[in-house]
Amino acid sequence: MKNTRFLLPNGYKKAGWWIFGITIVLTIFRFTFQDQCDFSMNNIRELFGMERLEGNGDLFSSLLSSSFGPNDDLLLTFIGILFVVAGIFIGFSRNKEDDEFIEQLRYESLILSLYINSGIVLLCLIFVWGFPFLWVMMLNIFSTLYVFILCFYIRLYHNKRSLHYEKQN
Q: Are 145 and 99 in contact (CB under 8 A)?
């Protein structure tokens, strides 16, 4: 078990599931009540004082004004941060019974998730253009981590189930 020194302690996994649940609730709240709620307090320009950068006529100002619209939502940024932190806590925490088999399973799941995510990105590069492509790339930030978690836990469940089946026979 030489490569487990980069893993978080086992207690982080439970915290990661709690953060993930809170993030799901916040996401549902955000997209369910986005028309009823006023999110003007989340204006990123006002928060960071970027309104003074507009109107100069140079390329940098026009890029900033097109990147940060007046309705930019800080809650979405916060949700994204929570999704990443929850994924790291869930995916990279030690298991209670870490051994060489679990280490190998984690490694193979990481490689498999990178293959799957790369395939998805290739398909999206071929079939998705324009503004929807930006959404695909934004989702790509989270997909590698969560595909890894999904692959690892499915393979772990499958191996534990087959081991339990062999012990019964």
A: no
